Amino acid sequence: MDKERLQEQRRVDNVVAKIKKSFKKKEQEYLKAHQETSSVEKNYVQNAKINTFEIDDRIETNAEVQQQKQLVAKNVETETILKGQLTTLNDLEKSPYFGRVDILDEDEQTPETLYIGISSFVDEKQNFLIYDWRAPISSIFYNGTLGKVSYDAPSGKQETDLLKKRQFLIQNAQIKNMFDTNETVGDNILQEILGSASDEYMKNIVATIQQEQNIIIRDTQSDLLLVQGVAGSGKTSAILQRIAFLLYHSRSELNADQFVLFSPNLLFSHYISEVLPSLGERNMRQVTLAEFFSQRFEGLNVETLFDSYEKRLFPSKEEHKYKQEKETASFMEKIKNYIHDLKTDDFQFTDIMLDDQVIFDKELIRATYASLPDAMSPSQRFFETKNLLIKKLKLLIAKETRKKWVLERIDSLNDEEYFTLISDYKRSRFGEVAEEENYLALKIVKDRFRTVYDAIYNNYFLDVYRQYSAFLMKNLRGSEISFNAELEIHRLSLADCAPLLYLRDLLTGGGQNQKIHHLFIDEIQDYSLAQLKYLKFAFPQAKLTLLGDSEQALFSDIQEPAEFLSNLKKTLNVKKARIIQLNKSYRSTSSITNFIKAMLPDGNKIQAFTRPGKVPKVLLANDYSDAIKKINTQIAQLLNSNSTIAIITNSMEECKQIYRKIHSIRPVTLIDNTARAVPQGVLILPIYLAKGLEFDAVIAYDISAHNYQNEHSLGTLYTICSRAMHELVLLSIGDVSPLIQKVPTKLFSVEHQVILPYKN
Ligand SMILES: Nc1ncnc2c1ncn2[C@@H]1O[C@H](COP(=O)(O)OP(=O)(O)OP(=O)(O)O)[C@@H](O)[C@H]1O
């Protein structure tokens, strides 16, 4: 070991010893906090048990229990914080840092040496032994080349002289690799990291963030940050790091609950779930578009992207046309205009019923709405109508309390019913019997009219579905037929969700979440402009970070990036928009990336990371049973050097067919849309569930001309191939797709004697 490395190792030993000491101290604090929580909890349980029998004692006990509850919550929070700190210290113990910079400030004589890791660490004298990677000064580790550099500090731009930049790979407190570099972050360590096997969870990239990724991570100015990056260029990695960065820099104003990430599917949510905790941060909220819509249309079966993808394989021409129209931003504008011009007579009000009885008929509701000034916006008028209806309901309830049935009901109450009704209200408070009777009558009637109140509160007096249908009839005549037919069987197609919600929210004034500060959307190419417009409306305070690869479009044709960007900017109408392109692909070996590049019309822009590997292999099968044989042989071969092999298909049906044939031969996992995690081994899954994921080896199933006829399916084929990290096998039953035929033959090998109509 050379002298310098020995010196560095000595420093590592020294720092690790201090981290261990600090860990022990924190552990004591944690144990103490834990004991406190347990004792408060015990106390709380005992208090909750006693004195709840006697009605009069309930109120006091409740107050006490509430106090204890708050105490437990506070203690649990302290415990969680300490536990998080222990986890971070534990991680630092194994790998305290990954970078070092030596800098010389203008007014200084001697250089300063700073070490950079996943979290800061100070010794007892408050000396910084490790700087957090998110600290302003740390940015020069990722950004700067040696010489004069600048970084953004809270006090403004700072300049310094960067004298040395050193990278470390430290495992179990031992330096495994270390070297000095003049580049931003050198290739050596990256090579080592990218060459390793895939994992159930995505890893953080903190030690090897690349310059252009660093820009995405540290941007705090843009209202819309659009990252257009080729497959495997680290878009997802960069935004997760970005979330950690934003949380660190706005610790006092922001917490993880104010971040929402729209992810492509539940497998993906699980896959990325460890990145933020590994950086010492809590996870943000995650939701898929399907979940988001389903929550808003209770009782309806909302079509998912996956249903729509499977259906897309056989769409009717007419349906396709309607769907395309509903996905445009201009369709959303039509909704806005429709509502603006909507006459009172055109509102689809509906009677409010209680059992079989009409409580407020629709004409009364219409008259109430009509009585309000025209100058009010529809949502204000709607809100006022709601208030007026609630007032009317209160009058009705007051009148009803005097009815005979109510008195009869009071007389027939047994003890239990009586105490339930009176709940914690003290009997002694009633001056006279009549007062108690009035109280009970009001409770009984209110209970009886609860559903009416709920109906008003939840806006059920407007039939939004009929309203939307009326809108369709006016603006996309014919499309209301299938909408109504689907609704009959409680189904809602995906293309209708955004316009329908928009219509509902504009009319009723709801649906907006003002609390979310940052909205992240991954795989943006799978969202229609109508959906994006709605999300912007639903999260009006949120800054947007949108990531995508317009060429990985599964659900629509590939769009020119420039056209996509300009449409997006126009639709979302934001002030400070910034677009960042990531063209270097890190996931796959250069052989796989070069193969993929050749498939795409503008593939030249993709830069392969120089990691050598085998060229992709194209296998030609004569028929289905030959294909299954070939899959089995390939799996056996690939398993020699790969731990996860994914057979990726174009549809669930294909997955099931393959699974039926091969699961008796070897252990395989069929992944469907109920799966929450991706195990290691051999997997079979359709491409839409593999979005955003990666596997050691991929077998692209049936890339024949039959399955991938033309450029409409290029997005799917490209996405499948780009899931492979180390090896890619493409299997075709019969002639290969013309999309593969245009790839130069030197970029892949062919296994079969059938002659291919090569052009090159
Ligand atoms: N700077 C980096 N250092 C180390 N690994 C990186 C870096 N950038 C990307 N990677 C790795 O490259 C792979 C692809 O990254 P990621 O999934 O974030 O890309 P993506 O652009 O979201 O991909 P896709 O659009 O194809 O799903 C991951 O294994 C990730 O860890």
From TrEMBL:
**UvrD-like helicase ATP-binding domain sequence ranges:** 208-589
One family from Pfam that matches here is UvrD-helicase
InterPro entries recorded for this chain? DNA_helicase_UvrD/REP, HelD_bacillota, P-loop_NTPase, UvrD-like_ATP-bd, UvrD-like_helicase_C
* Keyword tags: ATP-binding, Helicase, Hydrolase, Nucleotide-binding
* Residue sites binding ATP per the record: 229-236
One GO biological process term: recombinational repair
Keyword Transport, does the record have it? no
Classify the source by domain of life. Bacteria
Q: Which GO terms describe its cellular component?
A: cytosol
User: What molecular function terms (GO) are annotated for this protein?
Assistant: 3'-5' DNA helicase activity; ATP binding; DNA binding; hydrolase activity
Q: What is this protein called?
A: ATP-dependent DNA helicase
Upper taxonomic lineage? Bacteria, Bacillati, Bacillota, Bacilli, Lactobacillales
